[in-house]
Amino acid sequence: MPRGKNKGEEPLKRAKILIGFLIDYNKTNYEPGKLFTEWRDRDSDRPKLFVETELTKLADLLNQEISSDFKKANLQDTISNLKEFKIVTEHSTRSQKSKGTRVLTFALWFYNKKAENLKKLGSVWEEQKRQKQNQTKNPNYNNQKQQIDIKNRELDTILERNITTYLSKSFRKDRFAELDQAGDSGRDEEGTYLQRVFIDIFLKPWDKVTTEVKKIFTGEDDLFRDKNYVPAMEYFTKEEKKYNKVVIIGGPGQGKSTLGQQLAQVHRAKYLNTEYEFTENIKVKRIPFRVVLKYFAQWLSNRDRNESSSLENYLATEMGNITNRLEEISAANVQDIFEQKECLLILDGLDEVSDARLQQRMVEEISTFLDWAENIKVDLKVVVTSRPNMYKQQFNPEIFPHLEILPLEKEQRTEYAQKWVKTREIADGEQIRILDILKECEEDERISRLLTTPLQVTIILLIIKNGGRPPGERETLFDEYWRTILKREKSKDKDLIKSDDQILLNVHSYLGYLLHYRAASNTSDNSDINVQSLLPENEFRAAIKEILRKNDRFSSDEDINNKVDKFVTDAKDRLVLIVEPQPGLFGFELRSFQEFFAAV
């Protein structure tokens, strides 16, 4: 009989022996080098017995203490059975497993009460046997019961706590507007709060989807019946099944990522009972998972062939990193969350994974996850974002409605500008001056063409605020923006920023070129593929040193290296537009800036 499938008397007897021994052993922990146990969540309805050991050593201890005949294989079978009953959860890392170490949590029913726990185990075991018998008599029994039970089961107490921690920390981490972080930081020293400047944007059916497919979603859709566009947040807060999957197409700076960030924040706030705009429109509390696809792809490219590369594993890693509880969150836990809770999955930036083979592999992992979710009837909303130039309808338009972001209307620009100036520490008269000049810009045909995206409006507002006049061409606009930001940075107390402007521009240009070249030339045969548009610190240092040496052939290596150190130190905070978004990795916060500097 296959391992772990025998649910007769002998497996139950072994399970009782194991759990009984662990409860008794915990009172002394007399051989901590071989076996360590510890009670956790003692006051919960499912107190946890944490166990760290090697199975061979655990078998030896069992046989010594209770004259049993346990072998390592018997323990593996027993633990597999208990995992199936949701009594045991494993947290062993790959490194621990390679050394033979197993880290397990036994979710029991009574703290430190052996007899009561073993009695409860017996009843759980019998219930499992009855379910198996019913399943044999009625092949549809399991599916029927699963649908009844999914919403009635409560998650493990530790997992519930970790979900709250994950959402709380993610809510704080994502509180600043990404567009604004690339410009003026506003009144808040660290940045401008997203909810203070967010404006809703308009969506319409994407023109590149065939007319027949568009009719499937728009012909009988009340949202598009009397108009050809809809506010994004109105669309996202609809709970009918036809709104549960969508692909959002938008160009550079149109706010795709900001939209996904805001949507995640709204759902986090709803789950955490925190006041936030749009939460009153949310009818169903969903746990949001926001996946930046270039980071998922990078994680995939670094996985060994024998390691699981599923989306669940990646989400477990992300949750573990954010909560600082890596050992407590597994892929199985993530599946439990999706099975038992309503969820939202935001897949941001498909276009930023430029390597075709890696992107295909990533989409396959996502599709595998979505198929699983569909098969077990998970209550899930999915939002995918991409630029149009890299999008090849990787998500079926007959299942995922495809909507594109429309250019900003005059009223939207005004709303955004009013919110933007209010977040700055400037006098009311200065706010009026900025808004008046923006109105003048809207009357100038050349400049008004550059007021179609939130990024462009942000840049123009910043130029106006700093006393400039917006130019009429996109390239000149970015050039003026560079000078404006550089002037602002030079006013700060940073010795490096006060150095030669040309060197700073050269560093930005060279970094933009390197990252753009890498993105264009990546192949899946490249073992050191970098899909994040970021440079590791050693390569960033080498690039700076190359530029400094070209501009100074007489200084000693020591002096050049000292200057390189200063560049890197400043970039860890912010070097004009270069940042360190992840430890040891450097680049631009916005891809539009990378593309601009690559062309300088």
Architecture overview:
- With 600 residues, the protein is α/β, with parallel strands linked by helices.
- It has 3 domains: 9-137, DNA replication factor Cdt1, C-terminal WH domain (Arc Repressor Mutant, subunit A, Orthogonal Bundle), CATH 1.10.10.1420; 157-174 and 206-216 and 226-406, 3-Layer(aba) Sandwich (Rossmann fold); 493-599, no CATH class.
- 52% of the residues lie in helices and 11% in strands.
- It is built from 26 helices and 14 strands.
- It has helices at 9-26, 55-66, 72-84, 94-98, 114-137, 141-149, 157-173, 178-181, 194-197, 211-218, 222-225, 232-236, 256-271, 293-301, 311-323, 331-340, 356-375, 410-422, 428-443, 445-448, 454-465, 474-490, 501-521, 537-551, 557-573, 591-598; strands spanning 35-40, 48-54, 88-90, 101-107, 202-205, 230-231, 245-249, 287-292, 343-348, 380-386, 402-405, 535-536, 578-582, 585-588.
- A 7-stranded mixed beta sheet has the order 6-5-11-7-10-9-8.
- A hairpin with a 7-residue loop joins strand 1 and strand 2 (48-54).
- Helix 18 runs antiparallel to helix 19 (428-443), helix 18 (410-422) crosses helix 21 (454-465) and helix 24 (537-551) crosses helix 25 (557-573).
- The model is unreliable at 1-7, 145-152 and 523-529 (pLDDT under 50).
CATH class of the largest domain: Alpha Beta
| Sheet of most strands | 7 strands, mixed
Taking all Cα atoms into account, the compactness measure Rg is: 28 Å
Whole-number total of structural domains: 3
Keywords:
600 residues, alpha/beta, Arc Repressor Mutant, subunit A, Rossmann fold, 3 domains, 7-stranded mixed sheet, 4-stranded antiparallel sheet, globular
